[in-house]
Each structure stands twice: as C-alpha cells, then as structure tokens.
Amino acid sequence: MTRVMFQLTERQLRKCSPLEIPSDEWFRSEWKRRHGGKETGWGMGKRDWLLVNLKNDPEYQRGLGQGRVDKARGLDYSEERTDSAYNLGYYRGYTGYESNRRGWDAVTQERFDAEYVNC
Known about the structure:
Blueprint: H1 10-15, H2 24-34, H3 42-53, H4 58-72, H5 84-95, H6 97-102, H7 106-117
C-alpha cells in the first residue's frame, strides 16, 4: 500500500504554536521554589511539563496524525525524522490508533477513512 501524507488543517494550525522549552536551570529553580528548596525530582517535573505542553506543538500534531494514517493503511512503524516531538507524536498516533478510533463519532471516522484510508 502506498503512503499518504497527513496534512494539518488550517484550524489545527491555528491552535498550534511552536514549543519554547525553558532551560534546565529554569526547571531546577521552579522545582526548588515549589518544593521547599528540594532539588531532587526536577527532571520528572520537566518531563511532565513537556508532555502536557507538546499537544500545542505543530510537529507533535503532524506526527500524531501521520502515525494514525500509517497504522490505518497497514504500513509498518517508522521513525524517519530527527525531531523528537514528531517522533513522540508518531509513536502515540501509531500505537493508540485503534483505541482513539473507538472514541471518534461516525462522521469523524467516515471523514478520516475517505481522506486517508480509501483514497
């Protein structure tokens, strides 16, 4: 089966903004301030912050959509970019496709299939 590339819609692009990742020093100081001077654990705080804020990154959203499209078309999993936001989105879209699809309404399923699967 041939590969179809996922394209973000204008609405999706309007909701996205490139993610500005603060420095490690900022995360350390914020963690220390919020945890009474304790510094251990700031790395997990940074990870949690990134996971919450990646949903607004256009490359993450592009990877998420491409992973879903590739899984729906029966293609093998592949990480082809060096951008970690794209690859994380691709992984989550590919591995969570069946679960996500069960949560879509009938109109969304039909639109997705018409645009990316049955073309």
